């Protein structure tokens, strides 16, 4: 277990210490569940009632919240960001692999950089390039011509098809599939004719892709995921999509083919995005939203209705179908009621 003094954490976060800077901190915890030796944080005012009762040795606080707190605190500009950095600093997550396991199958043409670790039963295909300190978990399969940048981690049972490139410092979680075929077919009098997906996938630096998510290869050209993108579990990214820098996509969202999503977007969980449209930089989308047209301006967009009693929902569904008729009736009434100037 890692342990540091509060003074060290203060230097790490460029924060001010209120109280004993020699306290030893070994982990992070919530205000409610923290014990001695742990540091907690207050980032949401609705949890302020827990602040006076917490057993944490120290708490990350904003300057405003620290004014009325009598305990030991590390005062920072953004307590939640501070918590994230401290959690990284004290992280005890094991490595995806250590050393090169004798059961790993490595093609003779593969280039393995210094410090690479490859787990049991992994398969490394022809002409694969692994940068320095890459970690390849047990059961990972890397197809021909895959390139993986330094310090990237692939957890157990990730599958990477041919001609997929990943940048540096990426994290790919178990069960993810990168470079599978896009859903491309032509219909010849009722018979589906498969269109070979001849593009690849290009993933930038510091990208994280969640468990059991899929990123399809391009039909022609590449599917692109740019630097700093974070993708949650069970997300579908279809062929030839382009995801801009530092965009976040939450779980169970489906993005159809040839969609361009801008930079710094936040896409909530269980969204469905139709194909061949664009989303501007800085768009935020509420969970459960169906996106069927291009979004040209930043802002918050929503479409899902809230849960309600089934009988009421059924009535409202019928009324929703009547909206167009109601609209024309109102327009007719307005026209009839309008008086000349």
Automatic annotation (TrEMBL):
**Pathway it belongs to?**
Bacterial outer membrane biogenesis; LPS lipid A biosynthesis
Q: Which SUPFAM superfamilies match?
A: Trimeric LpxA-like enzymes (SSF51161)
What's its job?
A: Catalyzes the N-acylation of UDP-3-O-acylglucosamine using 3-hydroxyacyl-ACP as the acyl donor. Is involved in the biosynthesis of lipid A, a phosphorylated glycolipid that anchors the lipopolysaccharide to the outer membrane of the cell.
Q: What is the reaction catalyzed?
A: a UDP-3-O-[(3R)-3-hydroxyacyl]-alpha-D-glucosamine + a (3R)-hydroxyacyl-[ACP] = a UDP-2-N,3-O-bis[(3R)-3-hydroxyacyl]-alpha-D-glucosamine + holo-[ACP] + H(+)
Q: Domain UDP-3-O-[3-hydroxymyristoyl] glucosamine N-acyltransferase non-repeat region: where?
A: 24-88
Q: Identify the Pfam families for this entry.
A: Hexapep, Hexapep_2, LpxD
State the family named in the UniProt similarity comment for this chain: Belongs to the transferase hexapeptide repeat family. LpxD subfamily.
Cite the GO molecular-function annotations of the record.
N-acyltransferase activity; UDP-3-O-[(3R)-3-hydroxyacyl]-glucosamine N-acyltransferase activity
Q: Which residues form the active site?
A: 239 (proton acceptor)
List the InterPro entries: Hexapep, Hexapep_transf_CS, LpxD, Trimer_LpxA-like_sf, UDP_GlcNAc_AcTrfase_non-rep
Subunit details:
Homotrimer.
Which is one Gene Ontology cellular component term of this protein?
membrane
Organism the protein comes from? Shewanella baltica (strain OS155 / ATCC BAA-1091)
Q: Known EC number(s)?
A: 2.3.1.191
The answer, when asked if Acyltransferase is one of the entry's keywords, is yes
Tell me what gene encodes this: lpxD
Name of protein? UDP-3-O-acylglucosamine N-acyltransferase
Q: Which UniProt keywords apply?
A: Acyltransferase, Lipid A biosynthesis, Lipid biosynthesis, Lipid metabolism, Repeat, Transferase
Which biological process annotations from GO are given for this protein? lipid A biosynthetic process
Database matches in PANTHER family: UDP-3-O-ACYLGLUCOSAMINE N-ACYLTRANSFERASE (PTHR43378), UDP-3-O-ACYLGLUCOSAMINE N-ACYLTRANSFERASE 1, MITOCHONDRIAL-RELATED (PTHR43378:SF2)
């Amino acid at each position: 277990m890692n342990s540091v003094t509060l003074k060290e954490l203060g230097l790490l976060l460029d924060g001010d210490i209120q109280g004993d800077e020699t306290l030893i901190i070994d982990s992070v915890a919530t205000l409610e569940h923290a014990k001695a030796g742990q540091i907690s944080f207050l980032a949401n005012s609705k949890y302020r009632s827990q602040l006076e009762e917490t057993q944490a040795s120290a708490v990350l606080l904003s300057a405003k919240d620290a004014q009325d707190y009598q305990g030991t605190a590390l005062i920072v500009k953004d307590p939640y960001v501070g918590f994230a950095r401290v959690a990284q600093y004290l992280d005890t997550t094991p490595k995806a692999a250590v050393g090169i396991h004798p059961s790993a199958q490595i093609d003779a043409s593969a280039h393995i950089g210094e410090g690479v670790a490859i787990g049991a039963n992994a398969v490394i295909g022809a002409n694969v390039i692994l940068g320095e300190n890459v970690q390849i978990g047990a059961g990972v399969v890397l197809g021909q011509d895959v390139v993986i940048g330094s310090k990237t981690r692939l957890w157990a049972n990730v599958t990477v098809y041919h001609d997929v490139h990943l940048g540096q410092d990426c994290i790919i979680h178990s069960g993810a599939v990168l470079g599978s075929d896009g859903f491309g077919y032509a219909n010849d009098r009722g018979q589906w004719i498969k269109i070979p997906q001849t593009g690849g996938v290009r993933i930038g630096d510091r990208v994280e892709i969640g468990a059991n998510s899929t990123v399809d290869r391009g039909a022609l050209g590449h599917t692109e995921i740019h630097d700093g993108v974070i993708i949650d579990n069970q997300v579908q990214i279809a062929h030839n999509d382009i995801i801009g820098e530092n965009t976040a996509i939450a779980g169970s969202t489906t993005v159809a083919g040839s969609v361009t999503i801008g930079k710094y977007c936040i896409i909530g969980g269980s969204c469905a995005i139709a194909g061949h449209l664009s989303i501007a930089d800085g768009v935020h989308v509420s969970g459960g939203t169906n996106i069927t047209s291009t979004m040209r301006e930043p802002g918050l967009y929503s479409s899902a209705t809230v849960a309600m009693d089934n009988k009421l929902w059924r009535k409202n569904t019928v009324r929703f179908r009547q909206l167009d008729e109601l609209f024309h009736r109102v327009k007719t009434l307005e026209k009839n009621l309008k008086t000349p100037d």
